[in-house]
Amino acid sequence: MSEIAVAKGRYLRISPQKSQLVVNLIQGKDAGEALTILKFSRRQKAAGIVMDILRSAIANAQVKFPNIDVDNLYISKTHVGRAPHLKRFRPAPRGRAMRILKHYTHISLYLDERKGK
Question: What CATH number does residue 93 fall under?
Answer without folding.
Answer: 3.90.470.10
